[in-house]
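As a warm-up, study this chain.
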Amino acid sequence: MKMASLTYQDKLKGLKAELDAGNIDETTYDALKKDLISGQYTPEADLGQFETLLGKLEGSKMRQQRQKSVEGRRDIYTQGLAQMMSNF
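Now compare it with the structure written out below.
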């Protein structure tokens, strides 16, 4: 039986027919049905896309941290300059 091009319902009916014909036992039927349901209703993960998005997120976080550090140094310089001016 060619199951790749069949719809979900056709595949399920085919499994039931195999069970009724005695070609597979109840345990095998349950396992195949579970695999079929899992394949139908579980979203597929695209790991390449995930890695790309994770890389962008990490890059963004590093840029944010660098910017925060630069601004922190500016604040320290400004505070030091203000302190020196207040001493005069």
